[in-house]
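Table S7 (text form). Paired inputs.
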Amino acid sequence: MSENTSLQGKSETNGLRKLTTLQLLNFCLGFFGLQFAWQMRIILSGPVTENLGASPFLFGLIWLAGPVTGMVVQPIIGAMSDNTYTRFGRRRPYLMLGAILAAIALWAFPNSQGIAQIIADKLHLSLPVFGGLIVAAIMIWVIDACVNAAQGPYRALIPDNVVHEQHSIANAYLSFAIGLGSVIAAGTAPVLKLVFDYQMSIEAQFVMAALAFLLGMTWTCITFKEKPMQKPSKEDVENKEKPKQSFFENFKSFMQSSPEVYKICMMQFCTWIGVMCMFIFFTQFAIHIVYAIPDLTVVSDEMKEHYATAAIVATNFSSICFAILNLVCFAVSIPIGILSTKFGNKNVHIIALLSMAISYVLMGFISQPTLVMILMGVAGIGWSSILALPFAMLSEYIKEGSEGAVMGIFNIFIAGPQILVCTLIAWFISHCAMTTPKGLNYHWEYSFFIGAAVLFVAAIITKMIHEKKA
C-alpha cells in the first residue's frame, strides 16, 4: 500500500501522525457506528417509553441516564484509559467493550415488555404495571453508559495520535461521521416506507443500530493503530503519584488552568442545554404538536389503536427531520473545519450557534411540517459546529498525557445541562397541559423557546473567548 493510501499515518512528528483524507475517513468509521446507535435511541426512545406508560416528566427522568452516566462514566473511563497500557492500545479496549455491551442493550430495549414478562414468569411473579418500563429504563442506562464509555476515549485518540495542526479538521471529520451516521439511522425507515411501502419495525431498527455500532467500532479498532505508549517505570509512577489529586482537585485545576478554559466550558454548558431541548423533546413535539395526536398515556387501548397509524406517520416524520438535520451537519462539517482554520474557531461557531437559535424560535411558532423540516436543516449548521469546534478550541489547553481525563471532565459540561433539561424542563412541560378537541396534550414547543434563549447566551460567551493565534 502506498504512503498516501496507508491506513497508518503518512508522516510522524514525535510519534504524532499527519493523516490523509483516506486515513481521516477510516478513523471516523467507529464514531459513525456510535452515532448511528445514539440517533436511534434519540428518535425512538420516546415512542417506546410512552407506549409503556411514561408521562412527560417520567420520560425526562428516563433520559437522565445519558447525563448521569456521562458525568460519572466518562471522567472515570477517560482517566483509566490515560493509564491503560496493553498490547491492544490505551483506548481501544474501552471502545470495544462499550460497543459490545451497547449492542446487547440496543436489542433488548424495544423488547422490554417481553423481557419483563419472561423474568416475571421465571420468578413466578405477577408482572408489575410498570415492569416493562423498568426494564426499558435499565436498558437506556446501559446504552448511555456504554456510549459514554466509548466516546471519551475516542475523542482522546485525536490529541493522542494526530499532529496539532490537524486537530480541528480531525474533529470536523468526527462531525462528518456523526452527520452521516445520523442521516442513515434516521432515514432508513422512512425511505423504505416511501420507496417500497415497507414499514420497518422499531425492533428491527434497534437491531440495525446494534450492528452498526458493533461493526463500525470493530473496524476502527482493527485498522487504526494507536501511538505506542511506553509504560512508565515504577519510579516515574511513584514520582507522578506523590502529589496525587482527587477528581475534584483535578477538576478545579483544569478550570483554573486558563480563563479561556472556563469560558469554553460555560459556552459548552449553555450550548448543550439548547441542544438537548431539541433532542429530548423533538419526537414528542412532532407527534403531539405537528400531528396533533393527544397524549397516549391516559387514553384507552382502543384509542391507542385508533391513533396507531398516525403515530407511525409522525414518528417517521420525526426521523425525516433528524435525517435532514444530520444531512446538513454531514454536508457542512468539512467546510466548517476549513472555514474555522481560515477565520478562527470562535467566529465560525458564533454564526452557527445563532443560526440554530433562530431556527428554534421559528419552529416554536410554526408547526407546518414542511417548514419544520426546513428549520431542522438550518439547525444542522449549528449542530455540525457544536460537534467539532468546542473540542478544537479546548485542545489548545490540554496537557500531554491527560487527554482522556480532560475529555471526561469536559463531558461534564455536556452531561450536566442534560440533567437540567431532563428534570426542570421536563417538569415544566408536564405542568403546561392543554385541553384539545382530541384530548389532553402538552406544550412541547416551549422547549424550543428555552433552547433558543440559552443558545443566544452561548454565542455571547463564545464572543468573549480569546483564541490562540495559529
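Next pair, protein 2 of 2.
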Amino acid sequence: MADATLEVFRGNQDAGSATQYKVEITPGMVVLDALHHIQQKQQPDLAVRWNCKAGKCGSCSAEVNGKPRLTCKTRMDSLPLDKPVTVYPMKSFPVIKDLVTDVSWNYRVNKRIQPFTPKPKTDWKMYQEDVDRVQEFRKCIECFLCQNVCHVVRDHDKKEEFGGPRFFVRVASLEMHPLDNASRIKMLKDELGIGYCNITKCCTEVCPEEIKITDNAIIPLKERVVDEYYDPILRLVRKIRGAAKSD
C-alpha cells in the first residue's frame, strides 16, 4: 500500500486550475479508480466521463502525464509515483467541466461521410482477405485519442478543413470494402483535408486498439487521392474526355 498524488484539472473552458489530491494506491488500481476514489472520498463533484471500465467504450479519454490515454487502461503502478500524476482533459476539444470535454465536432464530421453504399444487385460474397482488410478499422472505439494527439487538430485547429485520423479510418473501411460502390476521394481532398496530414504516426502510437492508422488507412487513402488528382496521365485523360464532351 502506498500513497500517490494526483494533479487533476478542475474548471471549464473559461477558467480552471490543477488541484492536488492524495490517493491510497491499491494493487491493480488504474487511473480511473484513483479518480473514483477522489469522487467518493474527497471531491464528489469532480466530473469524469466513463462507462464500461473495460477499454471498449472510449469514454474515459484524458491526458495522463501529458500523454493521451484511456484512464481505465492506465495502471497506476506503470507511472512514476515520486511526483504528481497529472490528469488533464483532452486539449483538442472544449472543456465542459473538469475532465469532460465536448467532442461533438467529431460526430458532425461523421455525418458528412457517405455511408456504406452497396453495388446494385450485389452478390453478398467476399473473400476472407477482403474481410480481414476492413475488419481492423471496425475495431475503433471512438475514444478520439488519435484526434486529440493529431497536430493538425490540436496545434493548428483546422477543424473546418480537416477530418482527422478517426475519420480517415472510417473512410478507409468504406473505400476498401469490396462491395461499396461510392467514391469519397473528392471529399478526402476537398472537405476532409487529408493533404494536411504529414504522416507523423502519432495517431497510431496512442490508439488503444492498436489500429495501424497511418500505414493501413491514411497512406493508402493519400495514394488514392494522388492517383486521382495528381497523376499526369489521368489528368491528360480527363482533359481529353472533357474536351470531347464539350464538342
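The beta strands are 2-11, 16-25, 61-64, 67-70, 85-88, 95-97, 100-101.
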